[in-house]
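Lecture 7 notes: from sequence to structure.
We start with the chain below.
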Amino acid sequence: MSFENLPELLAPAGSMESLKAAVQNGCNAVYLGGKLFSARQYAGNFSIEELEEACNYCHLRGVRVYVTVNTVYKDHELKTFLDFIEKLYHIGVDALIMQDTGAAKLVRTRFPEFPLHASTQMTANSLADVNYWHERGFQKVVLSRELTLPEIRHITEHTEAEVETFVHGALCVCYSGQCIMSSMLGGRSGNRGRCAQTCRLPYALHCGYDKIAEGHLLSPKDVATITILPELVEAGIASLKIEGRMKNPEYVAGVTRIYRKYLDLYAKNPEHYKVEAEDLKELTQLFNRGGFTEGYYTSRGGLDMMSVERPKTWGLKVGIVDKYLPQHKKVVIRTREALVPGDGIEIWTKKEPHVGCQVTKHSKAGEVITLTLEGDIAKNDVVYRTYGKALNDALQKTWEKETRKLPIYGLLKARLGEPLALQLWDNGGSSVYVSGGTVEQAGKQPLTEEKLRQQIQKLGATPFVFENLDIQADDHIYIGVSELNHLRREAAELLERAILKKTKRAATEQKELPKIAQESRILQKKVTVLVSNLEQFYAAVKQKGLDTIYIESTKALEKNLSAVMEKCRQHGVKCYVALPRVDRDRAEDLERLQLFGESDLDGFLVRSAGQLGAVQCFGKRVTVDYNLNVLNRESVLFWKREGANNVCLSVESNLQEIRSMADRCCEMIVYGYLPLMTTQQCPIGNFAGGKRSGEYCTKRFSEELYFLRDRKGEKFPLMTDCERCFCTILNGKPLFTLKFYDEILDNAVGSVRLQFTKEGPARVERMVRAYVEMTADAAYCGAETRALLQEMNKKGSTKGHFFRGVE
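Predicted structure tokens for the same chain:
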């Protein structure tokens, strides 16, 4: 494979230092965030002036710059957002990485030449998802991390979109864009760039009164694909992305350097591709959580991918404790790696906190060393190096030396009696020409061609290096050295300006955003319900006042579809099928979709963009579900223009935001155990069902009730989809709004939804009756509803985000 056909190596930059580390170690592109609107609000990030400096630095070295604006936005933020995008457009940012559909539509309209990349936050799990976004102007689509190599290969072979995947770094345990755990528990939304990483906290798995497992049950190990890099290249992936905008520059430098090394090695000699042990050690030293996995490229999930003992970096194993002398506070360590002064080590004692210290003397691998250290240390405790002084120092030099420069070409003309002239140009079409004083006849010491070349090639602090320099010079000529230096400096400065000028974009005429007129408030709303199984369906359908039932797509529904439709017609209720939360081109789901499309079902509840595109040929009504993260009016309008009849608003919206964006086509959820997280790493399968790397576990289709318990004692029920092998972690407290229902109803939303997950038929009946009653008249509360209110008051519930919203 030629170097030109290699995938792009895309590196993270959380700071200017990290950016230089990435560039100097061989990346093709960097991704970074501004102070505003970034999915990593706790990274260093860049001001607009720093962003322009970053663009200039990268473009002068042939590196592309992508800015992450991959969060969702509130209506009042859109003007500031567009002002920010306009600045990015002018300074020459190469592409935007986006999540918000409404905001993306505004960018496409105002800046049609600005390339867009679909963020992994858009949860592209299928070929249909990728093609949908590509057809709507996204040049590149970042796939969900959960896809396997065969799935990725299927997508790349059937799309014109460029496909990007994560190849190294941290893995979210949840499908990106589908996690509201951080926001529901602490008000910090991952969809807004403020994830609190609640998944890295300790949890215990319970089945009834039995504790099955405990530890960091939701914390995956980092992915490292250096050993399977050839397979990724051959799968047709266009961009290989390194995670780590929150990591230090040394991490960025080391990981980028190693992936660059092996991409080039593969291009030179693919048949002899082999990863050196020292490079694997270096990656481990830089950051790991109990080793690495190859992610989902080669696995469908399982316990092997989890870092249960500790969610933070472990370091590199460098020895074991040979003996500990507590009376002298001395520990004797048998080493397996060389240590240098400044290394930081940590001894993994049986109980936390572990103890550690800084090394003060050199030692060779295999030596027995003695350190002064106090703690609950025992023989055979493992010793890790958590900070590698020599490695970090070496990596720091890689970006301080500025060895990566842009290859340029030159022509120097030094003809007797004519002006000295120098032309410089690059491979990108930029060219400059400068001239100096007249070339004179030499006296005693004429300038040789070698001396001319030596002076002109002194590009020093510039970002350039000569690929080739032609010299056309007469014999016996004289030119002052200062004249040559001046000519060279002037030409280099002009070439810099010429290159950067081509990356900038001209100002565009911008119109003011139209003011959002709030729709008339609708107090008489329709009631819809989502049910997870047929028991819940039969309990709900017979309740008077119900408008629509959404029912999850299952084998049971497929088998009983005729009976379900008959019941709906009998009670005058519309019936929609709710398509899978995780849709990954399963043959069974595609066949079932065709069956549902040709049936008498009234419509579809879609959970992905690809699903919306797939169902439109059937001519049925469509509701876009809340997991598509609609948080502003522009996103509502986007989905309506795309053919949605109804749009369910994000559960992260507060009442004020709902009033700002809603109309009668909108729906909001007013009851339910909200899904906090959708994960391929099912805790039941991993810790009770013995799942390692296979697709299914021994607990598949088990009806036992499992839940997680956090360190505060809160419960989180687990709901499995064993047909598709993923798990949904539910909030332990249901959203329940009847206590303040008059405020909930005071907006333009046309429908309110009750969402049933783990409830039994009796609970479903009571909830539907109460909500139908109070939706008809919020001021009326019958005896049964009053009893329910008292019961829920004792049991405990949540108001969701209706009165607080998210940061």
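Points to note: Residues 29 and 64 are 4 Å apart (CA to CA). The chain has a mean pLDDT of 95.
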